[in-house]
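Hello Y.,

Per our agreement to keep a running log of every chain we model this quarter, I'm adding this entry. I've kept the format consistent with earlier entries: sequence first, then predicted structure.
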Amino acid sequence: MKKIIRVRTITEVHDIYGYEKPKHPLVTVLPIDERMTQFDYGDVNYVLDFYQISLKEGISGAFSYGRSQYDFQEGTMTFIKPNQVVKVEQQESGPESGGWTLIFHPDLLRKSALGQTIEDYSFFNYEVREALHLSDEEKHSLTELAEKIKKEYQQNIDKHSQDIILANIEMILKYCKRYYDRQFYTRTNLNKDLISRFESVMRGYYQSDKPSVQGVLSVKYCAQALSMSSNYLGDLIKNETGRSAKEHIHEYIIEKAKTKIISSSQSISEIAYDLGFEYPQGFNKLFKAKTGLSPSQYRNLN
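Predicted structure for the entry above:
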């Protein structure tokens, strides 16, 4: 069994890399320098108890979440959330390598509005080939915010410090969401090809015996077939079409169901099972929600 090291505190991070004692127990901004890029991570999995956002410049390499590898190149951002298993595969730094890593503990967010909304930033769940690629201007904007956080905790902490730090963290997250939307938009031709492949996965699933074995087609299955995370697939499709991946799947199922209801003599229950539903009631509920009619009512109209 591979060795697992759990890193629980900001202080432990500083100790591992040999940085001086942190100025704040729950948040830090560290430079990505030789101490980090040339550290011997070994054949070890790391479990982190905090959020980590990194902007890497002049560095290429990979790390993995479980079985999925996350590649990064110059000027890319990576995102890690608490309890993710991370393994650093390799890092190669050039003569002008650098960047920064923002680390903040969930306890910093507990009583804040950001603590309630941070799960909405789905890029913390992105995986393979899903790094955020930044322009020079975008890198500059995010680096300014990281520097504001660092400056805030390095001076005398007062009753306003936490609010200001949290506001800047939230601003970084909002900018990253904007930049991901820009990335989706500027890669629209690639995205359309992905949507075609997504539709192909749906067709292939329902042309096989998988529904009777694995159940109703899921976003997770489609994402795995396309070598990406469920969140990235969902966000990309929503950005491109205005509808979620789950909505696309449900619409596909309903269209197949309509054809079966009208053109076959199968009972409604048999159709439900063929489409992967464990119970006909679940199929009936979805069909009525999408069409306004029960499957039986739809059959009687045609």
